[in-house]
Amino acid sequence: MKNIINKSFLILKNNLIFTQPILIYFLLLLAASQHLGRPNTQLHPPILMALSVFLLAAATISGLFHISKNALSDYNPNDDKTETARKSIKNLKTFFAGTGEHFLKVMSGTMLYSLIFFGFIYTIIIYLTNTIGIEPVQILIKKLGELETANQINEFASALSRHDLLVINIWSLFFVVSSIVFKYTSILYMAVIVSDKKNIISSLFKAVSFFVKNFFASIFLMAFMFVIYIMINLTVMILGLNGIAMGIFIILLALYFNYYIILVLCFYNERTKADSNNRTECVGQEQFSN
Q: In terms of CB atoms within 10 Å, which of 5, 8, 25, 149 comes out highest?
């Protein structure tokens, strides 16, 4: 696992220009949000806005997975800086070709997986609501707008019973874990779609099988990337809420997502290759013994 983490970091380091599509996507979202915040702005129906954001995200992800997969295939630790830069630029130029090749599968796969995952999450929410209740969380949500200072937050927390605090902590942990799992498993699913070039149903079953087979390694990667995400947020909090800090946050977030994609692609390819080699060796030993 250490080799996969280090290799992914080196690939990211050699292909920092791959963050450009993500940065452009973030800047477009930022520009759209500022435009919507202006007075007298005629808003499009929310469903069209959400659809536009989703399609743009699917296009960006399709191209980004494609160039990251190519960078992984082209990686050679013995390349000099000139050759590394040449490969990086060459792969970046295939971004739009990758978008065209994978867009439909990424878009439909994302919709399919989101329906399945959030349907499963909704079932758990119903179970938790019937088991431990949700009233303390609803009270907290209503009070959020009134809690502006640390003293107000402390007073509100001290007024809660142990049971209410336990319920809030359980719900908070549930949503955090759900977010972490969804982020990792969706990236893994996209990695299978782009790497194997199969239909979305076959890719989904293979992604689930891979996740189960490599469960503990997947848990480690999720925890590892979550720690990095927390460190990014802490860095921005230390810098303060200003324009410079937000600019640094966007750049770090783009690097984070780029690294996450490369890491999962590398993890999937390395483990799949190892499994394939093991099966080949087993078949060879059986034939030899026969």
A: 8
